[in-house]
Amino acid sequence: MKRLNTSGSHVVALVVGVLVVGVIGMAGYKVWQNSKTPVTDTATTVKTSSAVPSTIKSNADLTNASKALDDSSAQVNSNLDDNSLNSDLNDLL
Description:
Elements (H helix, E strand, L loop, with lengths): L8 H28 L22 H21 L2 H11 L1
């Protein structure tokens, strides 16, 4: 029976293993870097004109919170553009 020369096969297996570990390491590094940087979207940031209480303790606090929500919803509604929304939906379909 003829014996094959397999003296270099362990080197190939080692290179493949190092490549797999490297690819997994780079993917993990990218995920880690993306999780470190805070994502801020200026389009959804809404500044309220009235002070919003952290906890509602009285009827005045409830009124202030309601007013702040009404102001922010008006700002959000003014930022919406029906034509761009319709074109984006048509592009998706």
